[in-house]
């Protein structure tokens, strides 16, 4: 089990570490890389996974529902905490709700459980992204039109992939292979970009950052436990939900806060210290998963 955990986490931290090391001596256009990733490589991966008829997407409906409850429920659970501690709700709650299901979640699930975990990872990623660009944007700016959601490449790729899969439209093997190859670029690129972002950690608001690093995975795991029983999730899907629930805040929270001028420096502390805290949280969660939830073959 120890070897499995090390084999899972070591590539994640090595690739992210390469990003940190490269960013220390260079100044890469990380925003340009993220734009390319989110507009091309990630949509390619999403479409390829959803369009592949070997992925029985109907079996992931309960997992998608559980993921949505974890995201929205975290906000409801932590709202009174934020009020009690006199924290700005618009600053504190979005990073607690919208986790790093892209940069860390997809690579971690694939490394931990193999390629068979990719459909579950993508389903959870899509749920988180759709909620982030609908509920999340509404939280920061209630007047943002939700029709903008339909202009996102990830949303268009998701709709197209679902249409192909559910419609039973066969795609040539060579086209799926090309899409998977292009989409495969996004996983290491996500980790590399995360590593570069780690250089921006601001310890000036370290107390709020540490609080978020504890409450973000804790709230998710507290919600995941009854959901697994209620929705009868087991095996790989239960393991995927555990990992999803324990993920740190998404880096995208910082970019959105910067765009809407919602205390971006505080959000950066929440995001980056939270991701740093995952060095402790994720090994513990993987021990729990491999011991009680899922044993990889």
UniProtKB/TrEMBL annotation:
<keyword id="KW-0813">Transport</keyword>
<feature type="transmembrane region" description="Helical">
    <location>
        <begin position="63"/>
        <end position="85"/>
    </location>
</feature>
<feature type="transmembrane region" description="Helical">
    <location>
        <begin position="6"/>
        <end position="25"/>
    </location>
</feature>
<feature type="transmembrane region" description="Helical">
    <location>
        <begin position="152"/>
        <end position="172"/>
    </location>
</feature>
<dbReference type="Pfam" id="PF03547">
    <property type="entry name" value="Mem_trans"/>
</dbReference>
<protein>
    <submittedName>
        <fullName>AEC family transporter</fullName>
    </submittedName>
</protein>
<dbReference type="InterPro" id="IPR004776">
    <property type="entry name" value="Mem_transp_PIN-like"/>
</dbReference>
<feature type="transmembrane region" description="Helical">
    <location>
        <begin position="236"/>
        <end position="256"/>
    </location>
</feature>
<feature type="transmembrane region" description="Helical">
    <location>
        <begin position="208"/>
        <end position="230"/>
    </location>
</feature>
<feature type="transmembrane region" description="Helical">
    <location>
        <begin position="120"/>
        <end position="140"/>
    </location>
</feature>
<keyword id="KW-1003">Cell membrane</keyword>
<feature type="transmembrane region" description="Helical">
    <location>
        <begin position="178"/>
        <end position="196"/>
    </location>
</feature>
<keyword id="KW-0472">Membrane</keyword>
<keyword id="KW-0812">Transmembrane</keyword>
<keyword id="KW-1133">Transmembrane helix</keyword>
<feature type="transmembrane region" description="Helical">
    <location>
        <begin position="268"/>
        <end position="294"/>
    </location>
</feature>
């Amino acid at each position: 089990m120890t070897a499995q955990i090390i084999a899972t986490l070591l590539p994640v931290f090595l690739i992210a570490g390469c990003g940190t090391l490269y960013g220390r001596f260079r100044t890469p256009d990380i925003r340009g890389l993220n734009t390319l990733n989110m507009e091309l490589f990630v949509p390619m991966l999403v479409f390829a996974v959803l369009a592949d008829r070997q992925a029985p997407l109907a079996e992931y409906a309960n997992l998608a529902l559980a993921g949505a409850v974890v995201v929205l429920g975290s906000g409801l659970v932590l709202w009174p905490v934020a009020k009690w501690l006199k924290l700005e709700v618009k600053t504190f709650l979005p990073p607690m709700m919208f986790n790093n299901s892209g940069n860390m979640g997809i690579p971690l699930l694939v490394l931990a459980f193999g390629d068979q975990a990719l459909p579950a990872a993508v389903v959870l990623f899509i749920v988180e992204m759709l909620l982030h660009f609908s509920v999340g944007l509404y939280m920061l700016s209630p007047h943002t039109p939700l029709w903008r959601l339909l202009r996102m490449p990830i949303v268009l790729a998701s709709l197209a992939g679902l249409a192909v899969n559910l419609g039973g439209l066969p795609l040539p093997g060579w086209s799926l292979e090309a899409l998977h190859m292009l989409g495969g670029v996004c996983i290491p690129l996500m980790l590399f970009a995360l590593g570069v972002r780690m250089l921006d950690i601001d310890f000036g608001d370290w107390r709020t950052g540490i609080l978020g690093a504890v409450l973000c995975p804790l709230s998710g795991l507290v919600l995941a436990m009854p959901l697994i029983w209620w929705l009868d999730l087991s095996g790989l899907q239960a393991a995927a939900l555990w990992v999803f629930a324990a993920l740190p805040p998404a880096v995208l929270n910082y970019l959105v806060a910067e765009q809407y001028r919602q205390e971006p420096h505080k959000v950066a502390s929440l995001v980056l210290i939270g991701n740093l805290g995952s060095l402790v949280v994720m090994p513990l969660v993987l021990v729990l998963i491999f011991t009680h939830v899922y044993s990889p073959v």
